[in-house]
Amino acid sequence: MATAAAGTDRRYFARPTAKTGWWAWMTTVDHKKIGILYGLTSFVFFIIGGIQALIMRSQLATPDGEVVSAAMYNQLFTMHGLTMIFLVVMPMGTALINFLLPLMIGARDVAFPRLNAFSYWVFLLGGLFLYSSFILGGAADGGWFGYAPLNRELPGNGMTYYSLGLQILGIASLAGAVNFIVTILNMRAPGMTFMRMPVFVWMTLVVSFLLLFALPVIGVALWELMFDRLFGTSFFDPGAGGDPLLWQHLFWLFGHPEVYIMILPAMGIVSEVLPAFARKPLFGYPAIVFAGAAIAFMGWGVWAHHMFAAGLGPVANSAFALSTMLIAVPTGVKIFNWIGTIWGGAVRLTTAFLFSAGFVSMFIIGGLSGVTHAIVPHDAQQTDTYYVVGHLHYVLFGGSIFGLFSGLYYWWPKIFGRLLNERIGKLHFWLMLIGFNLTFGPFHVLGLLGMPRRVYRYSPGLGFDLWNMMSTVGAFTIALSIVVFLVNAVLTARRGEQAGADPWDARTIEWMIPSPPPEHNFDEVPVIRHRDDWWYRKYITDPKGTPAPVIAGGADASIPADERDNATASEDEQAHGIHLPSPSYYPLVTAVGLPIAGYGVIYQPLLLAVGFLIVLVGAFGWVLEPPAEPA
Amino acid sequence: MSATHAAHGGPEPHTSTGVDNVKMAMWTFLGSECLFFGSLISTYLLYHDKTGSGPTSADVYDIPFTSISSFVLLMSSLTMVLALSSIQQGNPRAMRIWLTATAFLGLTFVGGQIFEFTTFVEEGLTLQTSPFSSAFFVLTGFHGAHVTIGVLMLLGVVAMSSFGRLGPDSARPVEMVGLYWHFVDVVWIVIFTVVYLIP
Fold first, then answer.
1. Residues of A numbered 198-217 whose beta carbons fall under 8 angstroms of chain B's beta carbons: which are they?
2. What is the ipTM of this complex?
3. Domains of chain A, with CATH numbers?
């Protein structure tokens, strides 16, 4: 770049320099800081979504509940669903992916650090945009899948916020997906072949491709909804010849891959945690990887099982029933591999392991109730009852959330440098497991007894009373378990045991480096020779198959002698110092434009222009700012 | 690290696959765009006959006119290729001329679309007339928006090149904008065939 131009760049587009304080966090492009921001934000949304659930359970604890009005209840269950899916499970997975993905593949950052920061800010602002509807005349109230034509007819701006808010959040996820795909394909350390990648990295890759192809589909549905609501088009207006089923098809063509988008990161986490605490390699690594990919492919061919009650006809119903039963096969393969991993292992019952075991067992229950939906006549009985709500919570809470907590307990010491307290952690786990089953187990019974979902009241004498009370008690038990987790986090923040680099004697290379990792991650980029490379740097296997520690200065017999001494990459950064991406204002600036444009669409075209202008300014600053501070 | 090099024209970055990061990102993004236009085209196919009491496609489409504007857009792919070829031969002036020509052809296409939309509205086919009209305007409108964004990027590259701001590897940004531009053209071929030519 020409020196003169670089000089002007530095004057007009100086990059931020703050290393600490607010500005450092707002301009950071460090994947680890962004990961922590994602985690913190999604946890706050988790608490908000949980409070919504507690209000709903208080309302339903007894017949004819009087805690909230019907209108408020509609907003609560809609926003609870949207929050937990788009603002909790997805970003909490993204938090761990952000922090760990570069560490696990031996990279210094993701491929596009500023795009990564942009994703986070768009996610945060999109979430706030969606929530601002509560104080601006009422939130979305048409259910999280917002069926047509109700979604276009509901009064107020709630469903308009839904259509715009999910669009904004979709931009964040799409940018993240592109970033993670390029990072995984292009930024692997030397020797990190695809079949040596940790399963968590594999599942991130699969999920990113699912996001890449699923988001534009719901994007189109949301645009069409927005046009229907604001500009009088008739996409979903049956009166004018529009077809409400189009919404269902587009929504579930996104919505079913979305289910795997939420569960596959948790499956990746479990595939890391179980081997670490069973002190055995993952059983059937290729099978788990291919099963994950198979789930992703087949996930595109099952969407209409959400629509069995819509009357698609016997041929379509049979085809989707078959594909739905078939997708249970790769899922089962994974379950057996996890059991095979624990089998005969020297299992340590840590909190992280317990949460993973909880994931496997709860997910089996959720999976089995899921297969019952594949039987079309049975599904007709279950549609829109609490049975479906029970099923989805067993896979999303019992599955995803348990998996994510397992990952939190496992990687917490890597992220913050201190261990969480194991005793309090186990209390958290058992309270949560009991509370969870107490809350959502009765949902199956309620559903089979005929209690419809999304009702804000029920009459006494229908046989619902006891089960609802049980469920409410369970919900508050879960809340208590979350309080226990928070106490754990606060107590150990100051006085927790120092973790050291590798507190679990783990297997993958993120445990090679100090906790918390230095800004540049690896002093020298490691050369990877094995799957679970870090394990094989620590242990050799004797002829009986028992691992024995590598003696300091000793050697792994599998490495040729001439390669032993320089087992790190001689990248050019050793000669030139390590280049890290500089912080930047522009991801935040660009992101701020989007919700402003969103408000503009609803209230005032001038605001829309202002929003676009901010995006444009941000984009130009992004392109023109100089690469880094002057050397 | 390689992103820092890549984004600012350092030496050719080392990547695991050998494909440049930005190029791979552009290809993945375009993959996503395929599904976006696929969904819009599906909507159009579903609603093609749902014209209600409004005009049908046969009533309003002016195939010769749209064929000419389609031809203009396809020619812009040629000028785009010539722009890339110019910069690869180290001729930024020729590249700027070809990029400006590409932007001009793109704007001509968008102008043709605005004319077409205006004519349709005068003939009684508005966004609100029927599911058919909604699907038509939203599909072709989104394509027009993509062309417009492409024109902005083309002019941005021309401006940056004029001020000597493309960096040492100035062919890369041209190639990236080119990928996007050709994609938008290819999508139009599909839209033109499905929407205008298939009765």
1. 212-217
2. 0.92
3. 27-508+580-614 (1.20.210.10), 528-567 (no CATH)
